[in-house]
Amino acid sequence: MEKKLCGPDRGSRSFFCPVNPEPISFPPVSKPPALAHKIAVLVFLENAAGEHLLLLRAKPPNLGSWSPIGGKLETATGESPFECAVRETREETGFAITGADLHLFAMIAEKAYEGHAHWLIFLFTCKRPIPGLPPDMAEGKFGFFSRAAIGTTLAIPETDRNALWPIYDRYRDRFVALKADCDPGSPVRVEIEQITPAAD
User: In terms of DSSP bridges, do strands 102-113 and 69-72 run parallel, antiparallel, or are they unpaired?
Assistant: First the structure.
């Protein structure tokens, strides 16, 4: 009797042997789970002395770190980034502003932030100084800090230290679009995609 060797069934990952009619299947190659893509704003508020208002966050993301106020867009209602910035400022600090008080100076796409999600973040400055320190809330407690203190003594997220605050320092009066690879275990890599007006 002629012996026949087992071989792959054409067009599949199964192996079929003519002398054994049962195919031998292998499990599919697993793919890493897809990460959610979230949209949020951050608002850089200052008092009349030029100190920055930061929130020591009591909840993730950035638990235990100081960062500007902000939050996620209410995408179910079609909220715009400007509307979200106005709402979050009022809800978190009690400071009532309008879209005309805001300047959008950056948009940054953060890939795999903390390994949990991708973020698209719109960064705003406020043209009006906040009149006082807001009271503590469930999200955390507030403080005013000089820019020098933020860069040296405060506990801030790595992406804020390496990307967000340098972006603020350089582009707060302009507009820049960036992307950042925040894959855990690797240094944060930031790439500029567009600057308006264009760099000299």
Answer: unpaired
Q: What is the domain class of 37-196 according to CATH? A: alpha beta
Q: Which pLDDT tens digits describe the chain residue by residue (200 residues)?
A: 444 444 544 454 444 445 555 666 666 666 666 888 899 999 999 999 999 999 999 988 889 999 999 999 999 999 999 999 999 999 999 999 999 999 999 999 988 876 778 999 999 999 999 999 999 999 999 999 999 999 888 999 887 888 899 999 999 999 999 998 888 888 878 899 999 987 65
Sign of the torsion angle spanned by Cα atoms 128, 132, 137, 143 = positive
The encoded tokens of residue 34 equal 């897809």
* Distance between CA atoms of residues 34 and 19, nearest Å: 42
H/E segment holding residue 85: helix 81-93
Q: How many residues does the chain have?
A: 200
**Cβ(119)–Cβ(110) under 8 Å?**
yes
Structural contact between residues 96 and 125, judged by C-beta atoms closer than 8 angstroms:
no
Q: 167: closest CA among 190, 200, 198, 196? A: 190
Of 72, 59, 70, 129, residue with least CA distance to 95? 129
Please tell me whether residue 152 adopts helix, strand or coil conformation. Answer: helix
Q: What is the value of pTM for the model shown?
A: 0.78
CB 89, CB 98: distance < 8 Å: no
